[in-house]
């Protein structure tokens, strides 16, 4: 019904071309799955290599059900196959002839033909009724023709079972009856063992002596009545006694007939228990220890019974033939073979296995191929699963696992439809990335499968790490920006500022301030009662205690600065006691002792302290006053230039090349002059190129010629700053000498106002 409706309304699609099947188009219908195709489409499909069956001999496969057909359709017929090129009639089913179908129903035991009009799809079930018997055949019933269900009655089956003795006791059932489940007792041939078997089985057979062999020694009395049968339990009658006089014709070793021995005087045997005469020769029977190449024989005289064990020795080799072992061959042949099989050496095989990765490592190996039994375990191309094949050479096969879920990009615009092989990357997407971002700037990168987005490159304004200046055109993702200026943050000592280039974090974390400290303040002079003009250089960390007391004195005087300006006197002797001064006094260290020793030696040799006889002080680089003056104006620029020159000299001296150059960006004339003068100090060649305003300088360092001076221009300027004398102190008139107080009156002339709270300067 569904096929008829879709074909009539032209909604049915051909699976080959995916186009609608028109009511006037020639079609072909598969007789296995009943799918309808365009006739031309199915012809092209049948001739294509993709339609061929796997074995290559079964014809072509239906695109829908993969059922193989040998003949390629050539003509357009109706569904029942009776009419070629059927004409379309508005009142009939499309592609049908309008007559009775008449086809035989498939898969059913029905003799009636289909009695409806020509139609697509399978024929309906037969409406006729027939009489059928039940499974056991005792009852009959009227059922629909072609009914696949079996008829069962409630009677006992009663059919004869496979044993031919008993009947089936099951209720009416389908198929053959089950084998007889009754058991019977059987006895072995020798009569010593009994067992129970199913009735009707092959083991139930008996030949009159028994039904089976128990594989034990028979043990029945022989016909002589004196000896027992030594054969394994057997179905036939036992053999004659092997020692009967009428059976034995030769001596025990078999070399001499008994008739000849009787002529020599031996006693004739009457019964089986009489001894067999011996010939007296060597036995010579082959022993069981021998082989095809070396046969060992019995060396005893002719005797009855079994021969003695062999006294010879034999060489056996291990499985791989690496070691040899000597054993006595007194045992049976199978013992010799067992010894040869079980004897193995302890040598391990060093040959590579078939995989080429592992060694065989087997003890006493006899293999020729050395197959590897380990699992490969290497990661497949998908990167998720491992190879489960036996260890092998070469690359592993592609991952066979497949996903039947759609694989999409992050935003879902691009889709890869199933089946999706394992390891397939998400499809590329040209849409803008829709992931959440840390900033609100416009997004310029496309949708991606990586978890982390590319850094934001939107240009913004950001402060440097030291908060010195607001930098422009900085990419958004950059966080730690240095302006290149000095930090100038106050250190923990409270006296100095950081000299490092703009940096991140604290200036001094686990270190102490080691900058030199010039103690020339008003506090020092006031404490010494204006006695001398004293200047001392000390290490910052050594002045913590002394500076504490001097700071108190300075603050106390500064609070009464107004009174000093009006001519009043201030008592300062009680600010710092003698005990405090004693505690604040520094102890001489090794440096102080060395200076004192040099001073005494210079006085003894009458050497001027300002002289330089060995040209030690003048050995450093000489910088012109003009260069120093220009450097003080732009100290950061000079520091960067010297840093670049020092790096260039070190690189050319440590590298393989004899020359190394660096090109500076365009700059003004004053900056170019500074570079030329510094290049002379470093022994570097400098040349200016291009015209204004794009004129720039190129420096070239030469190995062996260019040097790094011991004192850079920046360090020289720092030392000069530290050694510069302090600003002049206004002179005050002492008013009261008799008392312990120091009186300070008004200044004799106007002096610039000094900020006495700035103790550091």
Automatic annotation (TrEMBL):
PROSITE patterns with a match to the protein in the record: R3H (PS51061), ZF_PHD_1 (PS01359), ZF_PHD_2 (PS50016), ZF_RING_2 (PS50089)
Keyword hit for Cytoplasm: no
Domain PHD-type residues, every copy: 11-68
One GO biological process term: negative regulation of transcription by RNA polymerase II
Cellular compartment(s): Nucleus
Family: Belongs to the NFX1 family.
Protein name: Transcriptional repressor NF-X1
Higher taxonomy: Eukaryota, Metazoa, Chordata, Craniata, Vertebrata
Gene: Nfx1
